[in-house]
Specification:
Elements: H1 3-23, E1 25-26, H2 28-35, H3 39-51, E2 55-60, E3 70-74, E4 80-85, E5 91-98, E6 103-110, H4 121-138, H5 141-144, E7 147-154, E8 157-158, E9 164-166, E10 171-174, H6 177-184, E11 187-192, H7 193-202, E12 211-217, E13 221-227, E14 230-231, H8 263-266, H9 268-276, H10 286-294, H11 301-309, H12 313-337, E15 341-345, H13 347-350, H14 354-364, E16 377-379, H15 387-403
Parallel strand pairs: 4-7, 7-11, 12-15, 15-16
Antiparallel strand pairs: 1-3, 2-3, 4-5, 5-6, 8-9, 9-10, 12-13, 13-14
Helix pairs in contact: 1-3, 2-3, 4-6, 7-15, 11-12, 12-14
Length: about 400
Amino acid sequence: MNHAAQASKRCNMRRILKSVIRHGEISRAALAEEFSLSTATVTNIVSELMEFGLLNDGRKDNAAIGRKAKLIRFNGSRYRFVGVVVPTDNLLSVFVCDLNGTVQARSSRRVEFHVAEDNPDVKVISSISRAVGEFIGAMRDDACVPLSCVAVSVPGFVNSNQTIYAPFHNWKNMPLAEPLKAETGLAVYMENVTRIKALSELDQVDPAERNILYLALSPGIGMVNFFNGKMVRGRTGRNGEVGHISLNKDGEACYCGNRGCFELYCGENFILKNAGNLLYGDDACPVLRDLVVSQNKPLSIATLFVARSMGSIKVYRLLATVAEYLGVALANIINCYDPDRILISGDIVECDSYVLDMALEEARSRIVSRYSHDLCVECARVSTGDTVRALCSYVLNNMLDTIIP
């Protein structure tokens, strides 16, 4: 099969599989109509996906007249994988689940991720690999067979050579993939957490929209650009490092070495750090202090919105500052990319629409073209905490790459 035919088949296979997942059950004829393909082409692709165990026959169509077609459905329970989530704190999460997102076993282990003189990268790699290996070894036989791969989500950029650059943990070209493969004997797929969630989001976007941006406002800030359904990675694989663009050249120093970074104003960790300064001292906010200290509510983005709704002027000013900087960043991004749609994730936009609404007003005032003022910006469908669902989509995409290389 030539390269063009392979690419076409891979594209059709992905589209058909994702359509089956989206519909739950669907007939071959309906798939042929949806993608303007011949019934024979769809039948051949469906048969191949069935051979790989990704699809199986479902119930018969309940149409009132005519021949009842047999529907097909996604066989998400056929494959299981080990998910590994490296967080921004020190609690490593390891689990095994099927492609439906059903978790069979889960474990958390405290690991010191920050690389330092007394905790070199070799020690960090060994701790992670050992934790994953011990988890797999301790699982029940029925939970771990068959395991198809290990999928790793990391809070940093995975370079083209599969090493990790994560300034938050002081990781510089950390070679984690090969040690994990040696420890588990499984294929290892590793990617930045923002990209993993963005790939899951892309499954739900209209293919007619060619230029899609996914912006993650989490402890760190990252962006993913999709063009014609493909992720733009850049020369070294670091495309999308918008969290470290300068919004204030004289601003606070960032751990990346830059100053006034986007992340310092709209990243969750820094928002909560500034909120923490409102709990004590001369500048304390009585409303927030009562919620966190007296009522024992967590110092979280959700709690900040509660304080704002209760009339806290100081929390209002904090959130207004976040919205202003987010609006400036969005204007810069829109001016550069002119996207069809921007999807934004993160508690700061998911818990309440207040910050995003203010940010969009700020962005509109700064966009160079008046034709761009009708912005298509919305909250992402995959929530900030739904890493399992995103990893399922990521693993499935990698599996399809091995089916048709």
